[in-house]
UniProtKB/TrEMBL annotation:
Gene3D superfamilies listed in its UniProt record: 3.30.470.10, D-amino Acid Aminotransferase, subunit A, domain 2
Enzyme Commission identifier(s): 2.6.1.42
Record-level GO cellular component terms: cytosol
Organism encoding this protein: Gemmatimonas phototrophica
Name of this chain's protein: branched-chain-amino-acid transaminase
Length: 283
């Protein structure tokens, strides 16, 4: 019997006692949005940025806000504290609520909002030694900038990666790398880091945005430019960024060894810089 506490529609409750309606539109249609923020040293990391993106996602799908950012920030931190999370994550989801099944929005919307916390190794992540990714076609819809709970394409991509013995999926479309199954992808060539510019084709990753500042502090040049799968294969280094992986080196793309096959020096500088910033902000 778990002693974990979650939060559902304004109430802290044991996870075993938390239930939503079978008519919830998040269940029926994937009609909702979500965020995942890291917990470091027992404190939320960049949750304010995640909540700004959550509000944008809600506006883009016409979903009213049931709680303001300050309230949600307090809930997320309280969940980390109650569950004893020193390193890990807090997941927050908002759906359009329960209504009779019909595709258009219900006349009266009462959002379902819930959150939970989980431990996860972040500072001492065993994957920091390098991960393998599996290249798959990007099958998603045309609004990947919205952090939607409709994630069947990512589920299939990540399952394909798991079956291939890889840690993450590397998605591509029309010859260009888009992003990972739940991460942004970068390459390094001749000392310059490249990542795809934001558009409706990718999610504007919070960790991705932070890395621009980390790179600037480290004297690393970053160029926002799309790159091909072939360019990723030929890169000196390849890396992925996400809220709960921070910065991880990609050392293999399927059976191809990236660079030397070990974490590259620029990737290591970015990871170290990100960890130093996280420690400073949560001290």
């Amino acid at each position: 019997m778990s002693l974990r506490t979650c939060w559902l529609n304004g109430t802290y409750i044991a996870e075993e006692q938390a239930h939503v309606s079978i008519f919830d539109r998040g269940l029926l249609f994937g009609d909702g949005v979500y965020e995942v923020a890291a917990v470091f040293n027992g404190q939320l990391l960049d949750a304010d940025r995640h909540l700004v993106r959550l509000a944008r996602s809600q506006r883009e799908i016409g979903l009213p806000a049931a709680y303001d950012a300050a309230t949600l920030m307090g809930v997320m931190q309280e969940l980390a504290t109650r569950n004893g999370i020193q390193e890990g994550l807090v997941y927050l989801q908002v759906t359009r609520g329960a209504a009779e099944r019909d595709f258009p929005f219900p006349a009266q919307v009462h959002p379902t909002v819930f959150a939970y916390a989980r431990p996860k190794k972040l500072s001492d992540d065993p994957n920091a030694a390098g991960v393998r990714v599996h290249a798959v076609p990007d099958l998603r819809w045309q609004r990947c900038d919205i952090k939607s709970t409709s994630m069947l394409a990512q589920v299939l991509a990540k399952q394909a990666a798991r079956e291939a013995g890889a840690f993450e999926a590397l998605m591509h479309e029309d010859g260009l790398v888009t992003e990972g199954g739940s991460s942004n992808i970068w390459i390094v060539r001749d000392g310059i880091a490249y990542t795809r510019p934001t558009s409706h084709d990718i999610l504007a990753g919070i960790t991705r945005d932070v890395i621009f500042d980390v790179a600037d502090d480290a004297g690393v040049t970053v160029v926002q430019r799309a790159f091909t799968l072939e360019q990723a294969l030929a890169a000196d280094e390849c890396l992925m960024t996400s809220a709960t992986s921070f910065v991880l080196p990609i050392t293999r793309i399927d059976d191809h060894v990236v660079g030397s096959g070990a974490p590259g020096p620029l990737t290591q500088r970015l990871r170290e810089g990100y960890l130093a910033r996280a420690a400073r902000l949560t001290a």
